[in-house]
Structure formats: structure tokens, C-alpha cells
Structure of Periplasmic heavy metal sensor:
Amino acid sequence: MKTTMMNTMHRAIKTVALPLVFCTLAAPATLQARPGGGPESRPDTPALMAGLDLTDKQIELLKEKRFEQRKTMINLRSQQDSLQADLAELASTNKPDLREIDRLAAKIGDLHGQMTAERIKGIVFLRSILSKEQQNLLDARRLVFGMKGERSTPGQRK
């Protein structure tokens, strides 16, 4: 009888404790993940750019553009994070103002759109300073490395 009771207890602990441990460990990891973040998601990662034989002038232009774009993106992300905190605070009140929630959500969407536009402008700028041969090589490499946001399999997500 004791063995059966112990087995039941162990199963109950595993059923409750394992998901709890997983959630505890997974939550901090997901909080650090940002859409479009990380150097691997940039269209000008070293692996993608290697072998393009960029000139010194092209490298300098890319550095300047990257620093400029980085400052813009930090500012936009900061604004978005602040609005998301305001939205969470507003949503947690006893009687949230739905119009204000709509207004904040729209602002967050606008900022997201601005960040997307900045990323696309960076790609357009990169292509504008490349020769035709470099553009063709970059395009061929994108087929190998894939582009951020593209899915390898067609169809809807489930």
C-alpha cells in the first residue's frame, strides 16, 4: 500500500513540479527574446556579407548607416517598451479605459511599423551601395542563409 501511495505521490509531484520548473526557467529566456533582434537576424551578418569584396568606402558607409539606424531603433524600442508598460498598467486597473487601451495599442502598432520600415530602409541602403555583381552574390547567399521572417515551408501556421 505504501509503495502505491509513494508512486502516486511521485507522479503527482512530477506532473506539477516539472511544468512549474520549466515555466520558471523558460520565462526569463522568453523575456529577453525580441522580435527582429540579434545580429543573426540582420541582413548584413558576417556570413552573408563574406566574400562580397566590399570596398573601404562601402564598409565605411555601412558602419555609418548601422550606427545611425541602431540609435533610431533603440529610441523606437524604448518608446514601444514604455507604451507596453503603460498598457499593462492600464489593463490591470479595476475599470480600464477601453478607448485609452485602443489608443496605446495603436501607438504600439505605429512604432512597430516604424521599426519594420527602418529595417527595410537598411536593406535598401545596403543594396544601393553594392555593385550589380555584389547584389547578385548577396541574393544568392540569401537563398542559402534565408531571410529573416521567411518560412522554409509553405502553408499556414497551426
Remarks:
- The helical segments are 2-32, 46-49, 56-91, 98-129, 132-145.
- The first helix runs from residue 2 to 32.
- Confidence is low (pLDDT under 50) at residues 16-35.
